[in-house]
Amino acid sequence: MNEHTQSQAPIAEQAAEWLIELSEPGDGGPAEERRRRFMAWLKRSPQHIEEFLALAMLQQDIAEQPVPLAKIVADLKAAGPTPPEPLFGNVAAGTATIAPAAAARMPGRGLAGERAAIRGRSRRWLRFAAAAGGAAIALALVQFTLVEAPAVRHATVLGEQRSVALDDGSIVTLNTLSEVDIDMGRSERRVALVAGEAMFDVVPDAARPFVVEAGNVSLTVLGTKFSVYRKDNVTRLAVVEGSVRVVPNGSLAELTEPVVVAAGEGLVAGREGITPLAAGTGIDMAIAWTERRLIFNAAPLADVVEEFNRYNATPIVVEDNALARREVTTVFNANDVDALVGFLELEPDVDVRHDGDAIRIRQKAALPEGARQPTARE
Amino acid sequence: MPGADVAAWYRQYHQRLLRYLRGNLRTESDAQDVSQEVFLRLLRVPDERVIEHPRAYLFRVAANVVSDWRSGQKAARTLPLEDPDALPAEDDADDDFDRRARQARIRQVVDALPAHQRAALLLSTQHGLTYRQIAATLDISERMVKRYIVKAFARLRRDLAELAETAGELPHT
């Protein structure tokens, strides 16, 4: 930014240009020089100061209301191409780099994530909780009990995991692309799992039952730790501590009686009824996400890929059925899409192709180009 | 100022500063007074003092001004409900109410942005992508990405001001 453009643009634009310039190291000349110019601009008028502070606040407010990547992309596509250049043309290299970068920054871990962590109010609470323990929960108690709104919604974006401290000291940890409505009533604590997956660490309170609404089942607990995953019409429950009473909802109620699930047990509630989750590995796999691990035990590649796609901005698409059925036994870090891609690239008969918005894999076929089966899978 | 101090300062003061900027000062002229005072204090500070973190420094000065301003106001007007320290719980509730109202307004104006401006802004602000990554994603130049973000911010400020004007500032109990 130079003096000329500064004097032309409205103050809000000048302030925004400074916001951008200050956020980017190494751009716009030596740091000292840049600071001097910034101070000179600030000192030119009180309006400059006011505008800059207001914009910095606005930026933080926007950061606190995350919009899922998928929605941003969908809106962009709906809006049509950016004039004068096409939006999703030949961008293979660019899109391939965004997934790990975005995923790595979002969890807000470590020093690199410090700024991102400061942005999010809930994450800030989590940070406080780690540092100050009970004091933070007391603070949360004050804030939450004062909120009159019936339910508070918390959502995570792609690749993000986040913990929310409730007013009773219970903790809800959301996995990627998940959403809960939390309603802490006087006589009942109620959380609706709107989408995705969450781990509940519930503080016992006999006077205030804790109920989780998860699609086709309602879970009632007194004090326990368990993970719930909602996908399409299926709900998966894995209990780590204590026990959970599962009450089927809707049409499932006609098929199944309520059941009690004890620690180390789990279940899958589907359209046809409730089936137990395999003890041991089944439970481990169901809660591995809390450590950002993905565990697969002789799982079809299609399932492995689907799990990865829950965390990463660039989806992997398996383009033929034989490959989709191939069984894989392995453990991955959920953030590390490159590990899976690398794993696949080592397979001699697998062809990995990066294109604009996806990584496409298929078996190396001897068939001519036109004769290949059009079997793209989600 | 070392990084840890900035973070500590930020946690301590930013709520108060937020309140100032969210129109909790009694009048528009109060807000102008505060920014005027920040300006005057800044003028007295040699540039070398504003070293490591100019933005954090600016925030600290502003917070101090707001703090001074509040204690001055307390003495002059004796309005007990205006004293946040005397009634911390009440103040938190107000703050939370204001925050929600403001967040709703922000959602509204962000939604109204042109899609490309919004995408550039959100990918940068929320998803931590660099301008270079955004440029690659949108297949436009880095310069264009910055231009979109600048335009988006300016438009948001304008729309928010209009929204506040239409709705009238909510009275602060």
Spans of at least 5 consecutive residues with low confidence of chain B: 1-6, 74-91
Number of strands of chain B: 0
Helix run count of chain A: 14
Taking all Cα atoms into account, the compactness measure Rg of chain A is 25 Å
What integer is the average pLDDT of chain B? 68
Q: What proportion strand of chain A?
A: 25-35%
Helical residues, percent of chain A: 25-40%
**Individual helix count of chain B:** 7
Which spans of chain A of ≥5 residues are poorly predicted at pLDDT below 50?
1-7, 83-149, 367-378
Broad structural category of chain B: mainly alpha
Helix content of chain B: over 70%
Through-space gap between termini of chain B: 37 Å
Please trace the helix and strand order of chain B, writing H or E for each element: HHHHHHH
Look at the structure and give the mean pLDDT of chain A: 71
Report the principal-axis shape of chain A: flat
Assess the beta-strand content of chain B as a share of residues.
under 5%
Radius of gyration of chain B, CA atoms, in whole angstroms: 19 Å
- How far is the first residue's CA from the last residue's CA of chain A? 45 Å
